[in-house]
Specification:
Blueprint: H1 4-8, H2 13-17, H3 20-28, H4 31-51, H5 59-77, E1 86-87, E2 91-93, H6 104-115, E3 122-123, E4 128-129, H7 134-144, E5 148-152, H8 155-167, E6 171-175, E7 181-182, E8 186-187, H9 188-195, E9 198-202, H10 210-216, E10 221-227, H11 243-253, E11 257-262, H12 280-285, E12 290-294, E13 305-309, H13 311-319, H14 321-325, H15 330-342, H16 346-352, H17 354-360, H18 363-381, H19 392-395, E14 402-403, E15 410-421, E16 430-438, H20 444-452, E17 458-459, E18 461-463, E19 466-470, H21 479-489, H22 493-496
Parallel strand pairs: 1-17, 2-15, 6-9, 6-10, 10-11, 11-12
Antiparallel strand pairs: 3-4, 5-13, 7-8, 12-13, 14-15, 15-16, 16-19, 18-19
Helix pairs in contact: 4-5, 6-15, 7-15, 8-9, 16-17, 18-21
This protein binds pyridoxal-5'-phosphate (PLP).
């Protein structure tokens, strides 16, 4: 047991507040932030004092320990916890990492709209009140070929609104193979229940036929719903009813058909050799009355839920009270408008929208980025006399890898596969190049954690005992930071701070 004395040597908050050093911090930062940082550090000191053996530290030592650590602790507390992260997972639309990065055009539109007033709901020509969706409607109609479109907060809201408006108190028929859960909390049966619609399940997990839907149709049927299996696939002895066949059935009975596409695209990925995701236009051509998609998946825009389809079905949604509850905010609207504008020219969209660029980029570009990263790490720590970047490009690609001078890290280029992610194209794998990172004395789990906790945080993946940094989702502009993060990850904890 340590003597209670050692605890008594730790200064009190009140006594610290009298000190000039603290007063000068209080002049620069909010009092609450300074106090919180002090309390946190004092707790740490108490923990250390209790673990200490022997006579313990004198008061002056505790004070200098606190004063040294305080600016760092304050800076941490004065920063928002939502940070930019370097995504080296190779998952392009990564839900946990914020899904689609925006184009520069969309970022500019957000900044301009955020910092001042805008004509969000104001008709500048007439000087009268207007609607916020006028800023995206025409573009969406042109890009999707729909008769009418509506936009809400996200795709979950889009599905919920459609169900509540079209099927409250009535039956919605869904295949048992499509009663899916997407991203934790979006579960089709639960959304249906919350909307007030009754779920009528048909078929089995692996097989559902047209006759299953047909038998379930009754006087209370309001909707036939098809849900895209975004994050898994069913293989083997399977059968499902195509949207086209469902549309035929719906028109025979006079019942609307809706398809929750999830990650609907505007860009034709199949045309670029990546099958699996129909465009919104192609989906509508199959005949459903309504399709819903996310704005921040393969569309490459901000969070939004886009509803496209027949005028008689979509128009009433705009007047539903829930539309006000679920409306898109002005920043997302600004980003969506800028994103859609890029699609006026497909080639421009492919070059300017980060999601499209990352998915369509050839493997050789990822490989050259991997080589650039390795060369940068080598240059960073190489002693002055050994800065010959010339050999870096070839030698690092060797199977065993070449130690990056000075860091002790071994880096080499490793072929692998990336994934579009975001519940889009679960079966698609895109060939890519990673930088495999290892160190003779640091386990890969530890390296992974150090990079993840660094500034900026770097998120990679561990596969078959290797730490892989996938260069498909890392941008050229991030390479210098990433190289610095790698060098920092092998330094001792004290120097890493
Ligand atoms: C992603 C997804 C959703 C949820 O969309 P959010 O925009 O995240 O609300 C709903 N349905 C399907 C099929 C999805 O893939």
């Amino acid at each position: 047991m340590p003597a209670p004395d050692s605890l008594r040597q730790i200064p009190s908050v009140a006594s610290l507040l009298q000190r000039d050093e603290i007063r000068s911090l209080l002049a620069r930062y909010p009092r609450a932030v300074v106090l919180e940082a002090m309390r946190k550090l004092l707790d740490e000191c108490r923990g250390e004092a209790l673990r200490e053996k022997g006579p313990g530290r004198p008061r002056e030592e505790w004070i200098s320990r606190l004063l040294a650590a305080l600016p760092g602790a304050i800076a941490e507390g004065d920063e928002i916890t939502l940070r930019r992260v370097i995504n080296a997972t190779g998952i392009v639309v990564h839900t946990n990492l914020g899904r689609a990065p925006l184009s520069e055009e969309a970022v500019r539109a957000v900044t301009a709209t955020a910092a001042g007033y805008s004509n969000l709901e104001f008709d500048l020509a007439g000087g009268t009140r207007s609607r916020r969706l006028v800023h995206v409607e025409e573009m969406l109609l042109a890009l999707t070929g729909a008769e009418s479109v509506h936009v809400v907060n996200n795709n979950a809201a889009a599905v919920f609104l459609c169900l509540a408006a079209m099927a409250r108190g009535k039956d919605v028929i869904v295949s048992r193979g499509e009663l899916v859960e997407i991203g934790g909390s979006f579960r089709i049966p639960e959304i249906l229940a919350a909307s007030g619609a009754n779920l009528v399940e048909v078929g089995t997990t692996n097989r559902t036929r047209s006759t299953d839907y047909e038998r379930a149709v009754g006087p209370a049927t309001a909707l036939l719903l098809k849900v895209h299996r975004s994050n898994f696939r069913v293989t083997g002895f399977t059968e499902e009813v195509s949207t086209a066949d469902l549309a035929v059935l719906g028109s025979r009975f006079g019942i609307p058909v809706m398809e929750d596409l999830g990650s609907g695209a505007v860009f034709d990925f199949a045309g670029a050799g990546i099958p699996g995701t129909p465009t919104i236009r192609q989906a509508l051509a199959q005949g459903p009355g309504i399709v819903t998609v996310s704005g921040d998946k393969l569309l490459g825009g901000p969070q939004a839920g886009i509803i496209a389809g027949r005028k008689d079905l979509v128009d009433p949604l705009k007047k539903h009270p829930l539309s006000r509850v679920l409306r898109i905010d002005k920043l997302c609207l600004a980003a969506l408008a800028a994103t859609l504008l890029l699609y006026a020219d497909e080639r421009r969209a492919a070059a300017r929208l980060p999601v499209l660029e990352m998915i369509l980029e050839g493997e050789e570009i990822a490989r050259s980025r991997a080589r650039k990263l390795i060369a940068k790490v080598r240059r960073q720590r190489a002693p002055a006399g050994r800065r010959d970047g010339s050999s870096a490009g070839d030698s690092v690609a060797g199977p065993g890898g070449v130690p990056a001078a000075g860091t002790g890290l071994t880096l080499h280029v490793e072929p692998s596969v990336s994934s579009p992610g975001g519940g889009a194209m679960p079966e698609v794998e895109i060939p890519t190049a990673c930088v495999a990172v290892s160190h003779p004395h640091i386990r890969v789990e530890e390296l992974e954690a150090r990079l993840r906790k660094g500034i900026p945080p770097v998120v990679g993946r561990i596969a078959k005992g290797k730490l892989l940094l996938d260069m498909r989702t890392v941008r050229d502009g991030e390479l210098a930071e990433l190289a610095a993060a790698l060098s920092a990850s092998v330094r001792e904890p004290e120097d890493r701070k």
